[in-house]
Structure formats: structure tokens, C-alpha cells
Amino acid sequence: MKEQLQQKTVSQEEEAGSTRGHMAAVFTVAVWGTTFIATKILLRGMAPAEILFFRFLLAFLVLCAVCPRRMKLKEKKHELLFVGAGLFGITFYYLLENVALTYTLASNAGVIISVTPFFTAILSHIFTKDEKLRSGFFIGFLTAIAGICLISFNGASRFHVNPLGDLLELGAALAWSSYAVFSRKISRYGYNTIQVTRRTFFYGLVFMIPALFLMDFRPDFSVLGNPALLFNFLYLSLGASALCFVTWNTAVKKLGAVKTTIYIYMVPVVTVAASAIILDEKITWMSALGTALTLAGLAISEGRTKSKKEKEAAVDY
């Protein structure tokens, strides 16, 4: 009886943690889904390289101010996990995506980046012990991809194949999937989430510096005198970077890399809704159907069958 009650208590605590993880993931993608609009506005006065570097630099400084305590590693080898997270999640992902968009269409990129959950599932299955591949995940993946295709190519007269740009975007998807796996491994060691995010940003910025010399990097802060540009820069730095990477890492810690990354399916849905509200863009039947399919795919991928142990723990004694 005592063991059964303990199992029930543990099950309830895990369920509460899972709920917090889902809420953190939903909040994160809700913000990330609007970053396209914020970036589009900010590009009126700043180059992509400037936006990228200073966005994460300000986010890093804010996290240092919020949590100034020095992070002590439990094992020296853990440093390699932070190096990997910063290199893949910040430097590689954002640089590859920015360069890809100069060669391929945004609609192509929107579909290609949506294969991230698939890559994450494969990498997690290989490199972690707690991420299992299920048939429901793949069914949901195909359903969501169908919906995202409808959203991304809505109104497009034809599909444009851009090998270089599309391959770079595929590399960006793989980079983010790798970041998700590194984040999952880091979450097992009980480090403070803000300190984890701060350290990840630090390595991302370090690896980004050499790439700036190859890009159009000419800082001009005078443009931030424009209130609209300043607001969107702060939104990207403080909201989409400093806050959302913390909430994303929290979700990964609670749910795992695969279940959290599935929420990326929602990003184009949020973008469509935000564009309709902020930019007054019309929602067509194709985008509406695409949104429904994407959300259905998300629900199917997130669904799971309870194990025998979980069912026993759920019995009301």
C-alpha cells in the first residue's frame, strides 16, 4: 500500500512537471513564431550579421545581470556539452539559416526547417537512452509537414528548387536538432537553467566572431534611435533570446528533446496568425487547412500510450 501511494505521488509530480514543460514550450514557440515579423522590421535599418550578433550579446549580458553567480561545473568534461550547444544551437543554426535565406525562398526554408523534430528523434534515439521512437511520432510528422507545406506555399505559383540554399537550411535543421540533444544531456546534471543558457550564449558568441569578418558587419547603433527598430531589437534580444532560450531549455528538461522539438511545428502557425493581426495579411483556405493539419500533426506526435507501470500508478487506491 505504501509503495503504491509513493508511486502515485511520483506520478502526480511527474505530471505536474510535464504540464510546466508543455506550457514553457507553447510560450516559447508563440514568441519565436513572431520573430520573423520583428526581424523583417529590423532589417530596414540593420544588416543580418548586426542583428544576430548584438541580439545574443545583449541577451548574454542580461542573463549575467539576472544571475551573476559563477557557474561551477560538476565535471570538467561537461564543458564540451556547453561548447557543442553554443556552436550548434547559436552559431551554426543562425548563420546557416541567415545565409540560406539569401539563396532560397522563405517558403522553402519554412518547410525544410520543419524536419527538425525528425532529425531530433533520430539523434536522440542514437545518443540518449530516454528518447523512444514511436509510430505515432512519424504519422504526426507527415501530417504536420503536409500542413506546413500548405502554409508555406500558399499563393505561390510554383515550387522553386534552390540546391545550395535548401541544403544550407537542411544543415540549419540538423544543427538545431544537435543543439536539442546537447541540451537534453546538460539537463540531466541539474545545472541552473539560466546559467546553462548564459554559458551556451557565451560559446555561441565566441564562435560567431570569426564568421562576422566574412559577413557585412558594420555596426551602426544610430538606427536604434528609431522607436520601432529599438522595440523590435529589444524584443528579439530580451524576449526571443534571453527569455525564450531559458523557457525552451526548461521544456527540454521536463519533456525531453523529442517532445519539446515537436512544438516547432507550431511556429509557422503562429507566424500566419501574427501576420494577419500585425501586417493585415489575409488567411486563405489553404493556410487555414494547413494550420489545422499542422496542429493535428502536433497532437498525434505528442500523444502516447501509457505503459503498464504508469497505468498501475494511476489507479486510485
Span of the ends, CA to CA: 8 Å
Q: Give the uncertain stretches in residue-range form.
A: 305-317
How is the main sheet built? none
Q: Domains counted in the coordinates: how many?
A: 1
Question: Can you characterise this structure?
Answer:
The protein has 317 residues and is mostly helical. It contains 14 helices and no strands. It is 74% helix and 0% strand. The radius of gyration is 20 Å and the shape is globular. The protein has one domain.
Helices, strands, pairings?
Elements: H1 2-32, H2 35-42, H3 48-66, H4 79-100, H5 106-112, H6 116-127, H7 135-152, H8 163-187, H9 193-212, H10 227-255, H11 257-261, H12 266-278, H13 285-302, H14 308-314
Short description, anyone?
The chain is mostly helical.
List keywords for this structure.
globular, mainly alpha, disordered C terminus, 74% helix, 317 residues
